[in-house]
Amino acid sequence: MHDLCYSYYSSQSIVSQTSIITFDVSGKPIFYSFFIEIKSLRNYLLIAMMGVLFSYSVYFFLSPEKIIHLGEENSFFELSTAFCFLLSAGLLIYLFIVRKNIFYLLLGILLFFGAGEELSWGQHMFKFKTPEKIKTNNFQGEFNIHNMEIFNTEKFDRCRKSGLERLLEINFLFRVFYIIYCIVIPFAFITFSPVKALAEKIRLPIPPLSVGLFFILNWILYKLTLESIAQNHPLPFYETSTEIFEFNASLLWLLISYYFLLKYRNDRIVMKVS
């Protein structure tokens, strides 16, 4: 995987910047860089594909009781999600220390927050009580922010929020962020030279577009799973799909963070060689 990351970034150095639309020096189409990326990062993509497909497949191979158990508090998917977020945060904070790039720190703090929220900041492990003001405004009575009514997907009457109410919905904001940062910006980076130049000037780490697109695949499979499974099960059976959705998102962030780490190592190799 180390060599794959290196070969991809080596190919990026020959991209022409003489046009608003990005072409390589041989006049290949604008998506040429994207296809190079897919070939070079195939190991990342294989892990992403296996994670996304296998996780949702539990609905077709396991019993309802086991599916419910996998989605329970402090069970497999929740703990795996927290682990991926926490490991990603650690990698990004390490990169901030060695690269002195504030964007790594901001991303690290964001994913650390995700890990903390997933575990209710250790409430179940350390057995501390939820402060009364938080408990009365929290759907699950837990010590976290994303389940508080103002930040939750639903109101206390179980009606889903809509319109401007969603602007404070944490899950919605998180999805908007990864669509912009992991899909829109990488696409613009390999397509428009001014965007590429600006990103390099401010030292913005660019996730690989090919990995970012798995966020969309994850969302599609999440919706398809809910549509395809039988509608005669208890609510926790369906809530496991949300835990799977969150787990896959955390796995993709871990792949992106590890990708950034390998890029840093490859940059050091290039500097030593030159």
Walk me through the structure.
With 274 residues, this protein is mainly α. It has one domain (2-128, 208-273). It is built from 13 helices and no strands. The chain has helices spanning 2-12, 32-40, 42-56, 58-61, 64-70, 76-99, 102-118, 123-126, 132-135, 170-191, 193-202, 209-228, 235-273. Helix 6 runs parallel beside helix 13, helix 10 (170-191) packs across helix 12 and helix 12 (209-228) packs antiparallel against helix 13. The longest helix has 39 residues, at 235-273. The chain is globular. Residues 9-27 have low confidence and may be disordered.
Secondary structure category:
mainly alpha
User: Any idea what the shape is?
Assistant: globular
Low-confidence stretches: 9-27
Report the sheet with the most strands, covering strand number, pairing sense and barrel closure: none
**Number of separate structural domains:** 1
Number of strands: 0
Q: Helical residue percent?
A: 55-70%
Order of helices and strands: HHHHHHHHHHHHH
In short:
By secondary structure, this protein is mostly helical. 68% of the residues lie in helices and 0% in strands.
List keywords for this structure.
274 residues, mainly alpha, 13 helices, 68% helix, 0% strand, globular
